Here is the input.
Amino acid sequence: MNAAFLVFFVVGTIAVASSILVVAMRNPVHSALFLLLTFLCVAILFVVKDAEFVAAVQVLVYAGGIMVLFLFVVMLINVRHLPDDRTLSRFWKGGVGVGLAIFLLLATVVRTGTYHDQNPNKKLLRSTASHRVRKVTNPDGSVTRKRVVRHRTVGNSEAVGMALYQDYLVPFEVASLFLLVAMIGAIVIGKRELSAPEEETSPDFILKRMETEKDVKEAMSA
Amino acid sequence: MTQSYFPILIMLILAVVIGATILGLNWVLGRHQRNPSKLSPYESGVPPLDENRKRINVRFYQIAMLFILFDIEAAFLYPWAVIYRDAAQGPSGMFLFGEMAVFIGLLAVGYVYVWKKKAFDWH
Amino acid sequence: MTWNDVVFLLPEIIISIGASLLLLAPVVGWRQRETSAKWSMLILLGITALTVIGCSYWVQEIPQSRSLAGMFALDGFAIFFKLIFITAIAMITLLSDDFLRESRYSVWEYYSLLGFALCGMMFMVSGMSLISIYIGLELMSLSSYILAGFFKNEEKSTEAAMKYFVLGAVSSGILLYGISLIYGVCGSLNLLDIGRALSTIITNDALMFGVMLLGAGLCFKMAAVPFHVWTPDVYEGAPTPITAFLSTASKAAAFSIFARIFYLALHDFQLDWSNVLATISALSMVLGNLAAITQDNVKRMLAYSSIAHAGYALLGIISLNSLGLRGVLIYSLVYVFANLGIWATVLMLRRHEYGGERVDDFEGLSRRAPFWAFAMVIFLLSLGGIPPTAGFIGKYFLFAAAIQAGFGWLAILAVLMSAVSMFYYLRLVVAMYLREGREADVAITRPLQIVAATCLIITLLLGIYPTPLINQATESSRWIGARAAIIPHAGR
Here is the structure.
């Protein structure tokens, strides 16, 4: 048993345990913190798999950004008191059944499937092909320019960069459009209309908001 | 390569051990008093007037959402910055520059939109 | 990948720049009346359409499979669908006009989102790599989620957007997982490379599972039966022009990528997925049509009808032959225009907020607006596949393809279910012609007239004289057809 396997075993166990706790915790803030732990464990697993860039993104975006959003949602909904009796959803048996079935299916499929590359070449994650133009002096004295392809062993971020900005250029630019649309969505759906201040002080609005709060609370406690 | 992360692993383990030790020692050595004043958030402070968890303004949420979007855009810049210095001398230098300019351009469109929509204004 | 390849992307580049400008126009001070938003959008769509047509003359000269590092193909198939999408979005712009005028939401953002959705659709229909198809699909879906919830003070609209978003996000995850398994087995995301890799693989559990997940994700997007539950609620709750968008352009986009992936990449794997998809197709047709009978809300009825139509379109994919591929092209066009015509008529009935949504609202339409009632009948007949409307041609190709591929039972079922579908389409006809209507006014505005009239002309003309459409479909499907037939296999 080597060190990488040991790390995988320990971190993987923590990841699975904490993700179970995410759904099992009664206090939403605790759930969020366990989610954070899960994200961090997954980041470590990425490092073990030599995908350092993804690990960094995992920490930056998920543990950094998305968790903040989760905590804001928890505070926005603001469940003060949860009922004491623990009730399971009526469909819990079905849910567990489907979950187990999918797990078994995945376990079988992932194990018995034959993959393109049985022993993934770790060097591939870290190598880039760079094209250089080099001046070559021929034996007769003339100088010709020659294109040389060099395979270099580089850092994982560099390999990701080469793939992302050369081969996967089109999806990358569409991804920026995607982010732009997400921004529009955040404004269109999230922002109140410009006449909101008047709305906010009107008794109707306040009554409606109280009702909504009550509904949300009921929904959370159900 | 993964071996170079070994010190970080040791640091993580140390952090867990130290944290656990301090809390554990506290629990073992300290006296357990459970009375209302001990359990209040500030033992000798002003008693809280209100519950600590208030419904926060939806604007926080919107700011957080925009933060994540710009965060992701920034994450895309790292690998580009890493390869750009070498590639700038090669034939694909201008091309790399161009594609990142398009990316930043679209980001700027979003930024201007969000700014002009006064999403960054608090009032 | 060089600067030269950028020419392939010209239509997409134009539409994304245009959509960005539409977004920025009002916020940087160019706050004009809302009609100028509509006209800007229409001009933008016109320019894009011209660029697509211009690009189509390049098709013969470019190495189609390898443009943009094998990410993007500008073949006849893509151009055919791109033109359908652009036309459909132009019609939806016209449909939205009055709808938006009455609301106090920003029109510019609405059109900008429609533009980005169109951009996503154009990217995905040209995608030669699973990843570019996926990201185009996501761009389209994200825009649709926002558009479905655009009227955020309407409870129904928000509810629809929420349901659509949550379920859509899950289905995207499933799709992505399928893609990752396929990548693991084949070692490539390029459709042609996958096709090549699969010709050497006999049986593989991981691949099988990956294809199933991919199919499930795509079936969600086109609302085929086990993955259809979102459809009625979302169609009912979304603003009617957006419902029109979801049930036409967005759906045709799903048909197109389904066909492209399965014809180009998975043709050698047909034995493994065709029976599963045949079951899904059968279920969609049966459940969609039977559930539509009981609906009193026209939007829900059309939602169930669109589920059934997903089942018909699947026939063309399962059969995996030349007829089927052409059938998908023809059917998409016919379906989009018949449906847009119906939505235009529904919008004519819209009185205050939810008028035109119930079957009762159609009562006596033949007296109030005889011509448009007649147009509605033609559109309904086209959806039902009755000659001499264009719907007949589409269904003819699909059913013939299924019979040719040995799925005779499915074709018989499809014919039976088409007959069932006439039952609820005729309910609307009966309401329009045989019932006394309550004295309610109709709002027949110029944009709605233009859309309905155009759809009527297309539906009738192509029904009576379908040769140009069939020739065009043959021409457009040539490249994919040739690629799919390169390697002969047992399934055909």
The interface with chain C takes residues 105-106, 108-110, 112-117, 166-171, 174-175, 177-178, 180-182, 184-185, 188-189, 193 of chain A (CB under 8 Å). Chain A is about 65% helix and 10% strand. Residues 1-80 of chain A form a domain with the Four Helix Bundle (Hemerythrin (Met), subunit A) fold (CATH 1.20.120.1200). Chain A has a mean pLDDT of 76.
